[in-house]
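Section 5.1 Outputs to date
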Amino acid sequence: MSKAVQIKEAIQQMIQTGTTLWLFTAEITAVQQNTVTVKYTDLELNNVKLYSILTPGNLLCKPKTGSMATIADLSGGKLRDLVLLKADELQQIIFDENGLYIDIDTTTGLIEIKNNNQSLKGLLNDLADIIKSLKVNVLAPNAPSGSVTPDTLLKVTQFETALQQLLK
């Protein structure tokens, strides 16, 4: 059963059993690995989950400290089982599914893209190395350059193959 179906069934069960779902807006005061701390009125609430289930999913959206967020209280107003639904500003987005990994981090200003075989940074480093070591045959002085040397052509072909393993 998919996660979306599980969530839909849980909401339907709450409606049928009369369970109240409490939603409120709070300010993010601290960000941990899989939880945040929020300020709601005068209360500081810890362990607000970034995932609605116990185990991490394949998409993690970390909010920026100081941003406003919508929080769901799954304990019906007891402020025990809290889940972040949406934040106004994000500091990091991580997607990790079936070997594809994408990390967008606004704190560092860096992006990481990789799969089980290649990383975009690695490929671009390989391209830089190929360009730095580019060699061509020169037939005679003052003559136009000839073909690319076999070792350079091999590097370009290997780069092309690796690039195809990462990008569509």
